[in-house]
């Protein structure tokens, strides 16, 4: 458990990555009570200095002793690193908020989106998991609907930005685009196919059931965060040549009938949600506008005319902010509210 203090020693593990960078920015912007910031990455980044509140902070490498004196550690260095280092950190009394997929489905680890299930933080044992980016933005919009009308089934298709994969993928999209426009040969390294000017129905690895791991994360994590294993979810996750901001086409079937107006009303009042739904003015959520913002944007809200109690909507959010860094910092904010 976190001890109440005026300011906390905070660590970012994976500080030089796409999500780690954003974590540092979000801690600064939200004026998180940081006594001292410690930054960790691999040996590749030794010597790198990153800016926090106008001061340079040197990147360190991890060792068994690293977590001594650290109160809160935000991890985003991939599942392999979290598997090894999150328990080491927790053992030295530090509370870990882990962005990787490593601990999310562990029954001993709460999986938290503060707007949906902040109450689950009460039972943490030193590690708290930050959900998958596509799942986070979806459940923020689903929760207020589920509370009044009980969602029976969700059918979701995602349109995911390359920044979810990390910096290398962002470089690859940029480089392929420039090379193609200059009639040069392209290099394909990060994804199995060209990503520039293309759409890939493939995120993370394929599993035995023919779904991808990303798709099954959406299925399983949604049930765990919403605390309702009866919600049926099916997902198709797709990579698109967008740098930042995941978009989702979401169809839901509810037990109780809701009109599109009722859904808009519910979502207008929902924490963390912004409704943009004026089709007559061509206004709907777009990843280029969601980029750099904190909200989960919802639009194209309409009744599914093919079933009795169905709603279609379009959900967009910045995958590096609400989908990763912001959600992790919000979890840390909840933790310090609960500290005694
Ligand atoms: O292992 P996984 O689960 O498959 O996940 C790996 C990828 O997922 C991203 C992450 O992006 C990583 O590439 N990622 C992880 N969690 C995510 C989430 N929730 C997520 N993406 C979205 N949502 P990344 O590359 O932007 O960040 C990786 C960070 O982790 C640091 N790191 C690596 N090993 C570490 C470590 N930190 C501590 N201890 C270790 N042992 C990593 O630091 C980075 O901060 P770095 O020093 O290794 O990277 C510095 C720069 O080098 C680039 N790079 C990465 N791999 C290679 C590389 N360059 C050349 N060759 C490589 N093989 C990085 O892009 C970074 O800019
Ligand atoms: O958090 O977009 O499980 O490639 C791992 C892969 C997030 C997105 C996770 C990607 C993800 C990601």
Straight-line distance between termini: 8 Å
The low-confidence runs, each spanning 5 or more residues with pLDDT under 50, are none
Distinct small molecules bound, one entry per kind:
5'-O-monophosphoryladenylyl(2'->5')adenylyl(2'->5')adenosine, trans-cyclohexane-1,4-dicarboxylic acid
CA-based gyration radius: 20 Å
What is the 3D form? globular
Main beta sheet strand tally, sense and closure: 7 strands, mixed
Helix content: 25-40%
The quaternary structure here is: single chain
Which band does the percent of strand residues land in? 15-25%
* Tally of separate domains: 2
Count of separate DSSP helical elements: 9
Please identify the structural class as seen in this structure.
alpha/beta
Query: How many beta-strand runs?
Result: 13
SSE ordering: EHEEEEHEHEHEHHEEHEHEEH
Assign the CATH topology of the largest domain.
Answer: Dihydrodipicolinate Reductase, domain 2
User: CATH homologous superfamily of the largest domain - what is it?
Assistant: Dihydrodipicolinate Reductase, domain 2
The CATH architecture of the largest domain can be named as 2-Layer Sandwich
At the first level of CATH, what is the class of the largest domain? Alpha Beta
The side-by-side strand order for the widest beta sheet comes to 3-4-2-1-5-6-7
Average predicted local confidence, pLDDT? 98
């Amino acid at each position: 458990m976190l001890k109440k203090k005026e300011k906390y020693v905070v660590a970012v593990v994976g500080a030089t990555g796409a999500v780690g960078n954003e974590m540092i920015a979000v801690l600064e912007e939200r004026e998180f009570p940081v006594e001292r910031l410690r930054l960790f990455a691999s040996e590749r980044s030794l010597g790198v200095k990153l800016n926090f509140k106008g001061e340079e902070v040197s990147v360190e490498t991890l060792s068994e002793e690293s977590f001594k004196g650290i109160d809160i550690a935000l991890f985003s260095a991939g599942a392999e690193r979290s598997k090894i280092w999150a328990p080491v950190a927790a053992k030295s009394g530090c509370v870990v908020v882990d962005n990787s997929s490593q601990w999310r489905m562990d029954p001993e680890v709460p999986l938290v989106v503060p707007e949906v299930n902040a109450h689950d933080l009460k039972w943490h044992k030193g590690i708290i998991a930050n959900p998958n980016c596509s799942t986070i933005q979806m459940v923020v919009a689903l929760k207020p609907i589920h509370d009044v009308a009980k969602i029976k089934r969700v059918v979701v298709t995602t349109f995911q930005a390359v920044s979810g994969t990390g910096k290398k993928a962002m470089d690859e999209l940029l480089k392929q685009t420039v090379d193609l426009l200059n009639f040069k040969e392209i290099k394909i390294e990060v994804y199995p196919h060209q990503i520039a000017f293309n759409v890939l129905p493939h995120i993370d690895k394929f599993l035995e059931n023919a779904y991808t791991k990303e798709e099954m994360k959406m299925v399983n994590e949604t049930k765990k965060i919403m605390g309702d294993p009866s919600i049926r979810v099916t997902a198709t996750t797709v990579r698109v040549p967008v740098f930042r901001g995941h978009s989702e086409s979401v169809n839901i079937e509810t037990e109780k009938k809701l009109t599109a107006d009722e859904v808009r009303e519910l979502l207008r009042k929902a924490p963390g949600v912004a409704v943009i739904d004026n089709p007559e003015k061509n206004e709907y959520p777009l990843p280029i506008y969601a980029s750099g913002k904190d909200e989960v944007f919802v639009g194209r809200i309409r009744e599914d005319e093919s079933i009795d109690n169905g709603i279609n909507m379009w959900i967009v959010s910045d995958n590096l902010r609400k989908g990763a860094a912001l959600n992790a910092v919000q979890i840390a904010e909840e933790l310090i509210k609960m500290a005694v």
